[in-house]
Inverse folding.
């Protein structure tokens, strides 16, 4: 069985993430969406909330499951029996960071292959931070995130 992890902070999950997860699920037998604790990013949503929102958003995908993790990605990927790390790549600005992460993860665990999926043009600019900012400013986010995520954002920023 070929298993991939798609890691991220998912604060919150967006249609851009879902696009990458959906396409990864077509390439391997199983995708584990790895929701990182990322304490240094002081996420808006708790790890439990981010995991639950990602589960809800991916429940229609049979070969996808969502798991939280707190620690090194390569350790989590090994625990899960994954052989591939799938990351989405948006604009050129993502490249340097992703290149560094892929090189580091290779150094730590060279049996894990990092594969990049290019974002389609409509999601090139989309990020969780942009969505959080829009929601904070009370602007609709329905075109960027699934309905459950939009409602969760509304609740966070209710006056
Ligand atoms: O969605 P993000 O925040 O860009 O995702 C970054 C993430 C979670 C993939 C990355 O920070 C990560 O792999 N975190 C787990 C800890 C780890 O393995 N860090 C790399 C060595 S310092």
């Amino acid at each position: 069985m070929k298993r991939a992890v798609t890691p991220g902070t998912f604060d919150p999950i967006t249609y851009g993430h879902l696009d990458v997860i959906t396409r990864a699920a077509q390439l391997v037998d199983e995708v584990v969406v790895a929701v990182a604790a990322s304490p240094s990013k002081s996420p808006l949503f708790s790890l439990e909330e981010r995991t639950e929102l990602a589960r809800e958003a991916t429940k229609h995908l049979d070969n996808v499951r969502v798991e939280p993790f707190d620690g090194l990605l390569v350790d989590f990927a090994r625990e899960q029996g994954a052989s591939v790390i799938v990351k989405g790549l948006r604009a050129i600005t993502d490249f340097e960071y992703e290149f560094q992460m892929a090189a580091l993860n290779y150094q730590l665990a060279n049996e894990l292959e990092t594969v990049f999926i290019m974002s389609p043009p409509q999601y090139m600019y989309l990020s969780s931070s942009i969505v959080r900012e829009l929601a904070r400013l009370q602007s609709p986010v329905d075109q960027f995130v699934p309905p459950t995520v939009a409602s969760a954002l509304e609740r966070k920023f209710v006056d």
About this structure: The chain has one domain: 3-157. The chain has six helices and five strands.
